[in-house]
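Dear Dr. V.,

Thank you for agreeing to look over these. As mentioned in my earlier message, I'm a first-year student in the group and I'm still getting used to reading structure tokens, so any feedback on how I've presented them would be very welcome. I ran two proteins. I've put each sequence directly above its structure. The first is here:
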Amino acid sequence: MQTHFGLTHFWQQGDAVIHATALILLLLSIASWALILGRVARQLRIGLASERAPEAFWQAPALPAALQAIEAADRSGLYSGMARACARNHQSYDSATCIGAGVSLSESITRALRNHMLAAQANLESGLTFLASVGSTAPFIGLFGTVWGIYHALVALSGSSSVVLDRVAGPVGEALIMTAAGLFVAIPAVLAYNALTRANRLVLAQLDGFAHDLHAYFTTGVRRPAATGPLADAAPAALVRQLA
């Protein structure tokens, strides 16, 4: 009996709707697991960069050496990209002839940090919408297969004066299998979405702290003595922190 009513038997007697539903769930599961593994590997790289990159930058004797050190310590590109953006903005500040040249150095650095934070946030959150969609829709796809399997069981019973196990076991088994398949796809996606969302919040908070330090450094530490105007304050950096 266990061999007769195995998964192969259920698949063979299933119709095109059951097969299509099962294939959709299989594709969603493969895609979500590939995305989960890729994001976990990226989070490990970012975590390692969060420990090494800021320290490597601040321990360097000069800005060129600091940029080289943070490039070597940051494989994710989040921290090194932020430092490069600030350095480019600082170097081109005095020679800028565009409409943005009228703002102060503090505001110019803040704009560069804000743009990088927005790009970093978009990069960190890529794929999370797919995981959320899989977690919310997979149970309903499995439920559709369940309803279809029960419908087949009722059709098999129509016109029969007695219940025959062979006629109802297959459709009922399809219904139970599709329910389990939907949950199997949805539960890992939901758990991964919650874990990655929390990890991204921590990464953005660490990037915000590094951005605050960079803002203070590039507006006070490397500004030429001939420059005039007030020194940097903490208000522009607060705009960057709000993105986290």
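The second protein is here, in the same arrangement:
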Amino acid sequence: MHHPPIQLSHPEVGVALIQFNRADRMNALDVPALDAAHALLDEVLADRGTRVIVLTGKGKGFCAGLDLKSMLDEHGQVNWSVEEAMSLQKKFAGLVQRLRETDVPVIAAVQGVAVGAGMALSLAADVRFGTPQTAFHVGAVKIGISAGECGISYHLPRLVGAGRAFELMLTGRPVLAQEALSMGLVSDLVPEPELMERAMACARSILALAPYSVTQTKRIMWRNLDAPDLASALELENQVQVLGLMTDDFSEAVQAFVHKRPARFSTP
């Protein structure tokens, strides 16, 4: 029986669960799997009802990155042209960029190893949760190519600091679960059977908020990580906040506060 390399489900209204489905390959991705991932993301992002994306893998691994065996020809050799290699790289990098740039919050439930481009995909998420079996591996630096791939050299220093990022990327050593928690790579560690519920609890907390609040908070966070100075960051915050004061959801929140009742926010 054929199993799709990527699966989409909707465990709750507003939540799109994207699951890598190549457990026998530790969810490593080949070109067909990458193409399927892009097509599935097209569907998810075109749905205006999508308010949270949860990203996870099936089996013991989150995602082992590139399926190296898929690169071998019939003689067991790597025989790719520069054009083919660049196309492959852009498929991986493009997937990371789309997850990072969407206004929809992305939660990664990292149940096992996240290697190379798989680690990059988890770093593109806004929130990461793990288990005691979670481990992050830069990977590429150990196989003769650069550790700076698919946004790792951009995201990792912003999450753990430049000094730690240099050490991890230059040595390629793994980051196991407890260290990942202590350095902020994951927000929480839970037993593996509880991982999806932990991710869904976070998703529900997001869903309970006004859509404008969530969208603009994610947008501001990422943009101001690259703000050239405090004045630029404050200017963007001021603009977004004033627009928020004009929304029906802000008025509803004020009324709910005054009357001591839960707010009833709009839907997109």
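From my reading of the second output: DSSP finds ten helices and ten strands in the chain. The CA atoms of residues 210 and 265 lie 5 Å apart. Does that match how you would interpret it?

Kind regards,
E.
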